[in-house]
Design goal:
Elements (H helix, E strand, L loop, with lengths): L2 H15 L2 H8 L4 H14 L1 H12 L1 H12 L9 H13 L6 E2 L5 E5 L8 E7 L13 E3 L2 E3 L3 H20 L7 E7 L9 H9 L5 E5 L13 E10 L3 E2 L9 H13 L9 E10 L5 E2 L2 E10 L2 H25 L36 E5 L12 E2 L4
Parallel strand pairs: 3-6, 3-7, 7-14
Antiparallel strand pairs: 1-2, 2-6, 4-5, 8-12, 8-13, 9-11, 10-12
Amino acid sequence: MRIGLASSIVAAVLVIAGGPLATSACAQTPSSASAVETTFQAILANPKVIKTLEDIKADDDTALAEQKRITEIPAPPYKETVRAEYYLKRFQELGLKDASIDTEGNVIGLRKGSGGGRPKLVVSAHLDTVFPEGTDVSVKEKDGVILAPGIGDDSRGLAALLSLIKSINANEIATVGDVMFVGTVGEEELGNLRGVKALFRDHADIDGFISIDGLGITRVVNQATGSHRYEMIFKGPGGHSFQEFGLPSAIHAMGRAIAKISDLQTPSEPKTTFTVGTVSGGTSVNAIAGDARMAVDMRSNSTEELLKLEARLLDLVKEAVVEENARWNFRQDHGRDQADRRPACRDRRDGFTDCSGHAAGGVGYHPWPARDLCRLEHRFQSGDVA
């Protein structure tokens, strides 16, 4: 963990968790903005903190070795258990004796302060990787570069968190508030932030949250990018490509939808993006596809722009289905269309989007939220919003 990032995290822990030094500095300063700066500088000048930061820097080789070990423990989405058990063992070895794994799979270790539990700060990194089960996670080195799936996202964050715990415990850094160290599950893709959601559900007294994530260690992200994700399922009658020629194809309908989506225009500011990330469907080269599906990701730094993009994209998918059925003279019968949309950025409301349609003889589409696939990313972290 680079010393600049380390100093920011250590200082943030002490400012938010309210160490004695932070308390005295804030009490002497009337302006809240200047109080934070004064406190920050006072903390960094404290001999114990200076020693803690030096220890973190000196621990870099050990942290790198830990990072490699963690990386080589597979943790695909929804299968983080083995890595979680290892991480729990490391928490306990570093002094968090009461650490445990919660019902969602998060590894939680509480370092108690002197203030009866408040304020409470979470410092976390995520256990899961984006890579599917069966991926070779062996760490390799090539031309001086260490390579492995997930070694940066977020094995580095997990190793850095352990180094932080080790150093502040060794230097007996005291806080008024409690610091909750957490290895979370379900951060990537269809995990839908299930670990963080469960954490806030079960611990309503959390006052602050820091996530060590990503490779952008020279900056701190304090806002959130909202995303809506859909799995669009297209269904048709299917049939033999020669004998039943003339029936609408689920894959053709999906292709029409993708073509329309690819021509969408979105603003560069606030940044608003979209992609069709994965596609699948059909059974054989000589069959009219009876089913197809695609996963769509939409993101924006603006709730308004995200909702506008979502509405337009869903309309385009409906248009594509209508056009595919019309091409073969089939009638499209649209079913219900319901949505519980979630705003982006700072809104914490839960929910998911459920839109469905069905066909009368032709192709229909079903944009289902797979495992609550339409998700809100609301988090604060040091790194890129994933």
